[in-house]
Design a protein that fits this description.
Rossmann fold; 128 residues; 5-stranded parallel sheet; alpha/beta; 5 strands
């Protein structure tokens, strides 16, 4: 199966794996699953590091490059279709990051792994 990781899931998997539910850990460790993140996750990670909301052992840009090299998570490209769907997806707020991540899951028909209640309520995407 293919899964899109929400930003916090990707960060927790790398920085605080104890925060992940057992089912999520199993999905992430299953070699048959394909795992992806959106470039928006990279952007959000940079912002979190700039605001010192997360602590990384390297400068943020280096840390991200290293994390992508050593993990089995791949970056999925943004497209005009995702941009269009980001405005069509029904969510209770206008957070652009959430909209782009949800639209990416919708466009590529992936299951989004998230604990975000706003995203979990969407009927247009599959959520774990």
């Amino acid at each position: 199966m293919t899964f899109l990781l929400d930003t916090h899931i990707w960060l927790w998997s790398l920085l605080e794996p104890d925060k992940l539910k057992q089912k999520v850990t199993e999905v992430l460790q299953n070699p048959q699953n394909e795992l992806f993140i959106s470039p928006i996750t990279i952007w959000e990670t940079l912002i979190l590091a700039e605001k010192q909301k997360i602590k990384l052992n390297l400068p943020a840009q280096e840390w991200i490059q290293e994390a992508l090299k050593r993990g089995k998570v791949q970056e999925i490209p943004l497209s005009n279709a995702i941009a269009l769907k980001s405005r069509l997806i029904v969510l209770p707020h206008q957070d652009p990051a959430d909209r782009f991540i949800a639209a990416t899951a919708w466009e590529y028909d992936m299951t989004l792994i998230t604990v975000d209640e706003h995203l979990r309520k969407s009927t247009q995407i599959k959520v774990l």
